[in-house]
Design brief:
The complex is a heterotrimer of chains A (about 210), B (about 325) and C (about 725). With about 325 residues, chain B is an alpha+beta fold. Chain B has 14 helices and 12 strands. In chain B, helix 13 crosses helix 14. The longest helix of chain B has 21 residues. The radius of gyration of chain B is 19 Å and the shape is globular. Chain C has 3 domains: about 180 residues, Aldehyde Oxidoreductase, domain 4, CATH 3.30.365; about 160 residues, Aldehyde Oxidoreductase, domain 3, CATH 3.90.1170.50; about 230 residues, Aldehyde oxidase/xanthine dehydrogenase, molybdopterin binding domain (Aldehyde Oxidoreductase, domain 4, 2-Layer Sandwich). The chains are: A alpha+beta (about 210), B alpha+beta (about 325), C alpha+beta (about 725). Chains A and C meet through helix 2, helix 3, helix 4, helix 5 and helix 6 of A and helix 2 and helix 16 of C. Strand 3 of chain A pairs antiparallel with strand 1 of chain B.
Chain lengths: ~210, ~325, ~725
């Protein structure tokens, strides 16, 4: 596992795990620094295909891990940092269960490579608590029973937060365009609509 | 997903130098909404992925009444929607982008990515190739389930539909693409960018493996232009349209002086309809005239067996796009 | 329980309305905060130390024989810890997506690479995946015995009106958002720890013991939360067993196998398709006297069984035939209310067509024949009345075919349904600690229905405590066994067991504090955090003080269902109505409004009960308009094993939804009845009927896609459909 800095955790997958594989002689370094290619008069770093050291800013904290470029942001969050609020459901950018904010905008974490999310502010559902208190949309989800099994819920919560940040008083039309990228199987949409209305009222101070 | 190496150049010259001259070896990464799915499904297997989002000159949207609209290839769909001049002068583009009802896709997806995304044909995505043939060479589309496949331009060998949301509107507005490659910059009308592949080795657009789309240039709106897009979508939630039409009409004293009518999601390329345009020019738009144009647009359409209903949907899309352009233009 | 039995069995009953502070009110679910913050851990979220990633190689062909299988390259790859063939050369594969080899590696990318390094060669065999025409199915069509009641031939001769129609719905999938899967590890030679996404926490160990050769007593099963099941998650499945075997091969390290989305849709759940040709005979006044149906459908390789036809209404004279079609597709599993949505559509659509033929309002036709519903007829009558008011049915209804101009046509439809839903067998341990805290443990699971919350409500209300005084622990097979969550049996089972446990515990508490209050135990009651003498509230003791009398020893009481006193019964009745708009130029159907009126006996939590009805309607809208497991006749594969073309309804697709739960003494006295399944039964029929009412012609098959709607309009000869 990767680690949150400065909290140093021992990862589940150590270099030694690799070296223990019987009968295999490793000929390439496991974690290589980037190669540098000289192209069009400039030096360009080439990362991978092996593991690359990466640094992320997630919910205001710094996290580091060594990952292959092919690892998605979603898998990095879930498998390296144990931030499992964002869910892997379709894994193809069609259901919204993995929604996180990248520099404040909702995106599908399954369709972002971890390597390209470096240097951006990543906000997951775990980061919505304000001084340990529920965000108004989280409170409204609970009160309006906008969840059943709850597997789509973190994605919906993040998408609703993003919607309200941009559109404090969303119209039904805004809901079509603002939440069309999230799907629920249990059928919690009535509760979600009510939760958004309530959170909008709360944020207006009503 | 297979392993690959990742580069993130900061100039278009670097990007092009990092791309291979053969398809399949490298892929361009912009929004990632399509590329990552293709890689997870093992449909494309690049050894190198070239991220072009760090190239500053590929970004941004600007408008001037004299030069028209410039859309950077990596400008997002959400940036397009947020731009006041786009909303004012190019409603067909805005309506097309609004059909993508996922804010996540609109935040990630780029203008260039919308144009270069690969077909959604389920046989292509299952690994049977663009032309969707099995090992004996027979067309899976013709013998299998073609409910979402082409109704125009479907003489073969390709039967998928072009998935671009923006292309029909861009073509209706007469937009051009600027493309950068080893031999410098070239321009091509969006209309001529797309093509129907004849062999499995070809791609469905006019781009060399080591070229990238850098920007889209849309001419300034002529006086009297009205325009609109109409999509027929099964779901309100994020869903591919079953048929769309974008139209741009230049009206002169109530009569149509010139017309562009372009259908989407109905053919392997965005499908301009000169037949519909001829049915409109010189006329005052009424329901009957719009219907005649719609009928003309679909006259050559052909069902592959299970997609005949799309002919009707496309006809409705054309008629409603024309009516919408005229109604909303009158406001 | 013995003590209470000695006192008076009849006292095992639900509290009178004035004695309920939580039961029947609107209580927010107790695990809401965990779920909205992302803290809730599902099986998919379990990260164990040293955990390996498991992946499965699947067969791409619908029918094939394995002629070569070579895993040697995968075995040699760095980071690969175990390779487990699940099939061998010569084995026959009967559906696309079936499992061939499982691997475990240090991480997912490595496991994927290993899967790609495995060589399998197949001999393709002829496959068959079509299900709409039994005549075309040849020997794959398996007729079952004809069933006859009364004298259908005479009844049809006697009938003044006979209508005939074809109706049906295709294969769909469960599409649980949390895929099937588990994390399995060996703790020593003979001890297995299983985290699994399951509807049957207490039932998993027994299913794994045989295949693993380990006593069930040595298999620990855990699950905090589950991301949807809908009937598809009662088994460890072949991939759960594979995860355990891989773990053993890898020296006991935990192995996580969660299905990829495509596999989830291809092999981990399907609702069988059913189609039917139905004839109904009636008197001119609408009295239905005769039924005849020939049905067919597929659930993959296992043959489908006959439907409960005619649905709800026991038409006196019937003839029924069913033909099971065996196809090369992933096997069917129980899908929320098995067989009922299909039976409901075939019946309610046929009756709606009969009403149209008679030029009757279908609501009146249902009311006229509602006596055929038997003992629940009165409930349906009342519910139909309420639904009609909520829908403004009499104001909005028009005869079949909306006469208004323009392409958008509106219409109304109605349907009724039923479900047994008696509480399952269940045990729980309730512990009162000397500090006054209360804990309930049972090997149950909360599918999102609010099971945890319901248990807490029952116990808190019985003990006279606030909700947060009760801690509910479920999801562990070391707790007392509880039934699987299927058939809407959970709420009846867990609430009854919890009520009995809490009543017994209270008796023991009363016995201890009675001397302090100078009263007999049976004079005491628990109310608002105190134990007090009935009729003399001044003589009371705070709950915590009472618990201090436990002398430092926690008090644990076992509650069971079934048990003394009838706390749960069977037989829920419900009515749904739909108001739709259809664009007859595009065939697009939009839901304007739906109304659900539902009875489920005594309601424990009104908030989550309503959520079940909203959710059922939404899931119903989804299958009525969008869902279809599309099987390709050429390749035999599922063409839409993704959430892009396997379409679920989104938030903007569901319209306005209204729920009315039946309450009052008449419903309370029946005890608790399950609610998970009933509300998903009627939407298909109600929406199909509404579309017919709007456009003037029946669209025979779900989902009501543009092509099907336009096709029906074209056959009617409508001027707008010009395909």
């Amino acid at each position: 596992m990767g680690k949150e800095v400065p909290d140093v955790k021992t990862g589940s997958l150590s270099r030694r795990d690799f070296l223990k594989v019987s009968g295999i002689t490793l000929t390439v370094p496991l974690i290589a620094g980037p190669r540098v290619l000289r192209v069009a008069g400039a030096e360009v770093k080439v990362f991978g295909p092996g593991k690359v050291p990466m640094t992320f800013t997630i919910n205001g904290k710094t996290y580091r891990a060594e990952l292959e470029p092919r690892v998605t942001l979603l898998d990095a969050l879930r498998n390296e940092f144990d931030l499992t609020g964002a869910k892997r459901v379709c894994d193809r950018g069609t259901c919204g269960a993995c929604t996180v904010l990248l520099d404040g905008k909702p995106v599908y974490a399954c369709s972002v490579l971890a390597i390209e999310a470096q240097g951006k502010a990543i906000t997951t559902v775990e980061g919505l608590l304000q001084e340990g208190r529920l965000h108004p949309i989280q409170q409204a989800f609970i009160e309006n029973d906008a969840l059943q099994c709850g597997f789509c819920t973190p994605g919906f919560v993040v998408a609703c937060k993003a919607l309200l940040d941009r559109t404090p008083n969303p119209t039904p039309e805004d809901l079509v365009r603002g939440l069309g990228g999230n799907l629920c199987r249990c059928g919690t949409y009535v509760g979600i609509r009510a939760a958004i209305a309530q959170a909008a009222r709360m944020q207006r101070g009503g | 997903m297979r392993a690959f190496e990742y580069v993130s150049p900061t100039t278009k010259e670097q990007a092009v130098a990092l791309l291979a001259s053969k398809w399949g070896e490298t892929e361009v990464l912009a929004g990632g909404t399509d590329l990552l799915a293709l890689m997870k499904d093992d449909v494309v297997r690049p050894r190198r992925v070239v991220n072009i989002k760090e190239i500053a000159e590929l970004r941004g949207i600007s408008f001037s009444p004299r030069a028209g609209l410039r859309l950077g290839a990596t400008a997002t769909l959400e940036e397009l929607l947020a731009h006041p001049d786009v909303a004012r002068h190019y409603p067909a583009l805005v309506q097309a982008a609004l059909g993508i009802t996922s804010p996540q896709i609109r935040n990630m997806g780029t203008i260039g990515g919308d144009l270069c995304q690969r077909p959604r044909c389920w046989y292509f995505r299952a690994g049977f190739g663009l032309l969707a043939r099995d090992e004996t060479g027979r067309s899976l589309v013709l013998e299998g389930d073609n409910r979402y496949h082409a109704i125009l331009g479907n003489e073969g060998p390709a039967y998928f539909v072009n998935p671009s949301s923006l292309a029909p509107a861009l073509i209706a507005y007469g937009a051009r693409l600027r493309i950068f490659g080893p031999r410098g910059t070239r321009e091509v009308p969006v209309e001529r960018f797309f093509r129907i592949p004849q062999t499995e080795a070809e791609r469905e657009y006019d781009l060399q493996p080591n070229e990238i789309v850098t920007e889209v240039l849309v001419p300034p709106p002529p006086a009297g232009m009205v325009s609109a897009t109409y999509e027929v979508r099964h779901r309100e939630a994020l869903d591919w349209p079953l048929a769309t039409a974008s139209v741009a009409l230049v009206l002169d004293g109530g009569r149509v002086r010139s017309a562009r009518v372009v259908l989407g999601q109905v053919a392997p390329i965005p499908w301009p309809s000169p037949e519909a345009e001829r049915a409109l020019v010189g006329k005052t738009v009424t329901t009957e005239v719009a219907q005649a144009a719609a009928d003309a647009a679909l006259q050559k359409a052909r069902s592959l067996g299970k997609n005949g209903y799309k002919i009707q949907l496309a006809r409705v899309a054309v008629r409603r796009a024309i009516e919408r352009a005229v109604q909303e233009g009158a406001r | 329980m013995a003590e209470r039995n000695r006192v008076e069995v009849a006292e095992y009953k639900w509290p009178e309305p004035e004695r309920r502070r939580l039961i029947g009110t609107r209580v927010s679910r107790v695990d809401g905060p965990e779920k909205v913050t992302g803290r809730a851990k599902y099986t998919y979220d379990v990260n164990r130390p040293g955990m390996l990633a498991g992946k499965i190689l699947r067969c791409p062909h619908a029918h094939a024989r394995i002629v070569r299988l070579d895993t040697s390259a995968a075995e040699k790859m760095p980071g690969v810890r175990a390779v487990l063939p699940l099939k061998k050369v010569g084995d026959e594969i009967l559906w696309a997506g079936d499992e061939v080899v499982a691997v475990a590696a240090v991480d997912e990318p490595t496991a994927e690479d290993a899967i790609r390094a495995i060589v399998v060669e197949y001999e393709k065999l002829p496959h068959y995946v079509l299900d709409t025409d039994p005549k075309a199915a040849g020997e794959r069509a398996r007729p079952t015995a004809e069933q006859i009641e009364g004298d259908p031939d005479a009844a049809f001769r006697e009938a003044e009106v006979v209508v005939e129609g074809v109706y049906g719905m295709p294969l769909i999938t469960h599409c649980c958002l949390e895929a099937h899967g588990s994390v399995v590890e060996w703790e020593g030679e003979n001890q297995v720890l299983v985290h699994i996404s399951t509807q049957a926490v207490s039932g998993i160990a027994g299913q794994m013991a045989g295949p693993l050769g380990v006593p069930a007593s040595n298999i620990r099963v855990k699950q905090d939360h589950i991301g949807g099941g809908f009937g598809s998650k009662f088994s460890p499945d072949s991939w759960g067993i594979a995860a355990a075997r891989l773990s053993k091969m890898a020296g006991g390290r935990p192995v996580k196998i969660m299905l990829e989305r495509d596999a989830e849709l291809m092999v981990a759940g399907a609702r069988p398709s059913y189609y039917g040709r139905v004839r109904v005979g009636a008197k001119r006044d609408g009295t239905v006297i005769a039924w005849e149906s020939e049905t067919w459908g597929t659930g993959g390789i296992p043959p489908t069984s006959a439907l409960p036809l005619p649905y709800v209404l026991r038409i006196p004279n019937q003839r029924k035939r069913h033909i099971a079609i065996v196809t090369n597709s992933g096997p069917a599993r129980a899908w929320r209310a098995p067989l009922h949505p299909q039976a409901c559509l075939l019946t309610m659509a046929a009756l709606d067509d009969l009403a149209a033929e008679l030029r009757m309002d279908p609501l009146d036709l249902l009311l006229k024949n509602i006596g055929l519903a038997g003992e629940r007829a009165d409930v349906y009558r009342e519910e139909l009345q309420i639904a009609a008011e909520l829908m403004e049915w009499k104001k909005k209804w028009h005869p079949r075919g909306d006469p208004s101009p323009g392409p958008i046509k509106r219409g109304l439809g109605v349907s009724i349904h039923t479900w047994p839903g008696r509480g399952h067998a269940c045990r729980c341990d309730l512990t009162i600690y000397p500090d006054g805290s209360v804990e309930v443990k049972l090997g149950s699971q909360d599918l999102g229905t609010g099971t945890r919350t319901a248990i807490a409500i029952v116990v808190a209300d019985t003990l006279g405590l606030p909700l947060d005084a009760v801690r509910v622990r479920i999801g562990d097979n070391q707790y007392p066994p509880a039934g699987g969550s299927g058939g809407s049996t959970t709420i009846g089972g867990v609430s009854s067991a919890a009520r009995r446990a809490a009543l017994d515990a209270l008796d023991q508490m009363f016995a201890r504090v009675a001397p302090l209050l100078n009263a007999a135990p049976e004079q005491l009651e628990a109310w608002e955090g105190r134990i007090r003498v009935k009729g003399d509230p001044s003589r009371s003791i705070a709950w915590e003080q009472a618990c201090a009398r436990l002398n430092g020893m926690p008090l644990t009481v076992r509650g069971e269902n079934p048990g003394p006193g009838e706390l749960t019964t069977a037989g829920a009745a419900g009515v749904q109505m739909a108001d739709v708009s259809v664009d007859i130029e595009t065939g697009i159907v939009r839901i304007n409004k739906m109304v659900a009126v539902q009875d489920c006996g005594l309601i424990i939590n009104m908030k989550t009960a309503e959520s079940q009805c909203y959710g059922g309607m939404i899931m119903g809208i989804s299958y009525a308009l969008f869902e279809e497991k599309i099987l390709d006749p050429v390749t035999g594969r599922m063409l839409n094993p993704n959430m892009e073309f396997y379409k679920l309804a989104g938030l903007a697709d569901v319209g306005e939804l209204v729920v009315h739960m039946m309450t009052g003494e008449k419903y309370d006295r029946r005890g608790v009845i399950g609610l998970g399944e009933p509300p998903v039964i009627s939407p298909g029929a109600a929406i199909s009927n509404a579309v017919a009412n709007a456009i003037g012609v029946r669209v025979p098959f779900l989902p009501l896609t543009p092509d099907r709607v336009l096709d029906a309009l074209a056959k009617k000869g409508g001027s707008h459909a010009r395909v």
